[in-house]
Amino acid sequence: MLMENLLNIWRAFFAKKSSRRLGLGLLLLVGVLLYVGGKRLWKELGGVDRTWERIQRTGVLRVGMDASYPPFEWLDKSGRFRGFDVELARALAERWGVEVQFINIHFDGLYDALKTAKCDLIISALPYDRTMTKDVLYSQSYFNAGQVLLVRVDGPNIRTPEDLDGQVVGVELGAEAHQLARLLQREKDLQILVRREPEDVLALLLQAKVAAIICDRVTACEYLQQHRELRLVEPPLTDAPYVIAVPLGSFVLLEQVNLALSEWRANGFLATLQRRCF
User: Fold this and answer.
1) Pair (114, 252) in one structural domain
2) Is 159 left (phi over 0), alpha (psi -120 to 50) or beta?
3) Where would you tag: which of 23, 206, 251, 270 has the fewest CB atoms within 10 A of its CB?
4) pLDDT tens readout for residues 58-102
5) To which H or E segment does residue 231 belong?
6) Are 159 and 211 in contact (CB under 8 A)?
C-alpha cells in the first residue's frame, strides 16, 4: 500500500514529460524507497533496536554530554547537572517512563562513547555534522544556533534584514558575523563597525552607536537575559541546528525522539524551556 501511494504521488508530481524533472523525480523516489525499505528490511532480517530495547528493559536512559557549556549543560556547586539539554533529557525520560542517567564526557569523546554503547544518545549542544551520518543517526533540530540580529527595543524599527539598508551594524572581528555582514553589505547600503571583543560589540549596541549587532543565537540569548532593553529579530540569518545523536540501527529510539520534539515544538514546550533556561 505504501509503495502504491508513493508511486501515485510520483506520477502526479512529474506528469509533465521533462527529462530533468523525471530524473529528479527518480532520485527522490529512490531515496524515499531506500529509507523506508531499509527500515523494513532491517526488521525483516531480524534486526531490533537494541538501544531502545535496553532502555525499556533497564528503565534507564543514559545521556552523554559535555557538561561545560552553559546554558545548555553545566555542573552546579553541588555537582548536579543543570541546563537546557539536561531538562530536555529529563523530559524525554519522563515521557518514556524511565530514569535518566547523565554521563559527563569530553566533547571530543562523545561519538566514541555512543559507538561503544557507553551512552544511549547524545544531547550536548551537538551541531549537525553531515560527515558523521554514516556513523550515527541524527534527530530533527531542537535549537537553531545560527547568526541573528540583535537590536534595541527603542532603536530603529528593524524587523527583517531588508531594514538594515542605511543602518550601522556591529560585529566581532573575524567572526562568522563579520563575514555575514560583508555579504549583506554587497546588497545593502550598510556600514560595519568592527570590534575585537564580543563585549565591545555589545557595548556599541547598548550605547546606541549601531542599529544592530550580529552574533550567534546562544550569545544573543545570554545578552537578552542580561539586558531587557534588547530585542531579537526573527528568523535567524543562518542555520546552525543542534541535534540529538543516536546509534546506527536505533530507528525506534530516533522515531520516539523526533515524535517528542515535534509535539514539544507545536505545543510550545521547547520555547518555554528555552526561556526558562536562558
Assistant:
1) yes
2) alpha
3) 23
4) 999 999 999 999 999 999 999 999 999 999 999 999 999 999 999
5) strand 230-233
6) no
Cα end-to-end span (Å), the chain: 46
The CA distance from 264 to 143, in Å, is 12
Q: How far apart are CA 218 and CA 204, in angstroms?
A: 19
pLDDT by residue (tens digit) across 96-125?
999 999 999 999 999 999 999 999 999 999
Same domain, 155 and 130: no
* HEC sequence for 141-179: CCEECCEEEEEECCCCCCCCHHHHCCCEEEEECCCHHHH
Burial of 41 (0-12, 13-18, 19+ CB in 10 A): exposed
Same structural domain for residues 61 and 135? yes
Task: Give the count of domains, the chain.
Answer: 3
What is the CB-side half-sphere exposure of residue 231 using CA atoms within 13 A? Answer: 13
Residues 68 and 137 in one domain: yes
Distance CA 165, CA 190 (A): 6
Residue 28 domain boundaries: 2-44
d(C-alpha 231, C-alpha 223), whole Å: 10
